[in-house]
Amino acid sequence: MKNNQFTLADIRNAVSAGVLSEEAFARLEGYLSEQAQESPETEKFTLFRGMNDIFIALGICALTIGWFVLWGLLANGPAFWIAPPLAMIAYVALAEYIAGKLKASLPSIAIMAALGATLMIYAVAIYMSLAGPAGQLSDLDTVIDFGQRSMNVLVFVAIIGFAFQLGFFLRYRLPVSFALIAAGLVGVFWSALMATFGPAAEPYIPYLITATGILLLALAIFIDSRDPKRINGWAECAFWLYVFGAPLTIHSIAATFEAAALAMIPVIIIAMVLSLILDRRSPIISGLIYVGYLLQSGFEGAAIDPSMTIVLVCFIVGGLVMAFGVGWQRARHVLLAPFEDHPLRRYLPPS
């Protein structure tokens, strides 16, 4: 409940608590659906609830910048090792209040990023002091440089990052952490592969990125299929999987084929159709980026003035975005109407 406005998830929680019966919930849900003039918006997520969340997030970002600048000023000495644990304790205390009590998503993401970065850099510093060349650890820049050059450290950091995201999600149920857990698990595999095969694995990186994106999208689709009406918290976890998975897939394909029109046009069409079927906008947003790129390349080939090219690209892409935004539900209804009685239709959001 937010500002005395109840969501279906709140009412579903009342059913779980025994306050409301399943039959009453079904009647209420049917009544609310009938009252709606069009199909309900199912792709909902709460990044911030108001200006206060943004205000708190800005404060956390300012504190974080100050903390990393301070850490960077500390030379190799007792303060260099004592300050990070103290900073992590402070971040955990903030997380307990902001993520645990207030349930504020945007500030929680800021805390998660700051705490995770501090933890991983500190872990690299400890690893370097134990396994790195003697006498090289002098400041924060040296630690970061060491982490970027060592494949063993890359594996170590990937494992630490994955464990951190898993713990953060289990403690605070922050939806974005779920997507980062999935990405982190693949990151561990990536880093282990690079550490094992070294430069020989580099030609396969674009294919690994594409495979990772497809896996994230597949997981998102599976989660959505378990809750097509998206009334529980897992729907927001799926949202973040799409946010990470769609760009990874489409951009890596573009990089592999150098964004050639013959490769990108089918990908863009598939992304648009998939977005409408799944009622998720992330794939189509990633695809529209390359619509703009292909249009620009085409206009340049036609020797159109560069300034006019920008105008035309903006007008066409902007018109497409507006058309999809205004006619989204109507387009979904037209696309899915022939399959209304198909058994798989029950796994998709209503149209």
From TrEMBL:
This is DUF2157 domain-containing protein. It comes from the Bacteria. The chain crosses the membrane at residues 54-74, 80-99, 111-130, 150-170, 177-198, 204-222, 234-253, 259-278, 285-304, 310-328. Keywords: Membrane, Transmembrane, Transmembrane helix. The keyword Lyase does not apply. The lineage of its organism: Bacteria, Pseudomonadati, Pseudomonadota, Alphaproteobacteria, Rhodospirillales.
